[in-house]
Design a protein that fits this description.
The protein has 171 residues and is mainly alpha-helical. The protein contains 6 helices and no strands. The chain is elongated.
Length: 171
């Protein structure tokens, strides 16, 4: 019997705690709700005619938030400007990649003046073709404005250039 009373008492205690908690939350929601600026302006210490400390801090915080919003968003492009800038950058990347592909083709002409062995000449040509193909892939990605592909494609180009330079540039 004692065990049953303990469970009931424990359940009542939990229920009371839950009720008090819900009451506190409800009270906070009712009293701590958002004030209109006209409501806030009316909050004054009785007999002093001065705003409450909370009101001063609250209005200061609002002023700082307004300043921050101006600083953050006044200089940001609107969507149209952002699209135009992205298109300009993509066009510039595409042109640079196309020029790089042409340079890669010209590298093949340089190979003849290097007096490379047949094996080295083949490796050199492979690097040149690889660079050309990678540059063309970057050009295509830029024309389609697939900016998420740029970093990987550029890393591949750098890796190809570094590989060729490590094998064929004199130290």
């Amino acid at each position: 019997m004692l065990k049953g009373k303990t469970n009931i008492t424990h359940s009542m205690f939990i229920g009371i705690k839950l009720g008090i908690g819900l009451f506190m939350i409800l009270l906070l929601l009712i009293t701590g709700g958002a004030h209109k600026t006209s409501d806030v302006a009316e909050l004054k210490l009785e007999g002093h005619g001065e705003p409450t400390l909370h009101q001063v801090r609250s209005s200061t915080l609002r002023e700082k938030m307004r300043s921050l919003r101006v600083l953050m968003f006044d200089n940001i492009y609107d969507e149209l400007q952002f699209d135009e800038e992205r298109a300009r950058q993509a066009k510039s990347i595409a042109e640079t990649a196309k020029d790089m592909a042409e340079v890669a083709l010209n590298i093949l002409d340089v190979q003849q003046g290097l007096n490379l062995s047949a094996d080295h000449a083949r490796v050199f040509r492979n690097y040149a073709h690889q660079l050309k193909n990678q540059a063309l892939a970057l050009e295509e990605a830029a024309r389609q404005e697939k900016s998420d592909a740029y970093p990987a494609l550029i890393r591949d180009i750098v890796k190809t250039c570094n590989g060729c330079h490590s094998k064929f540039r004199p130290m």
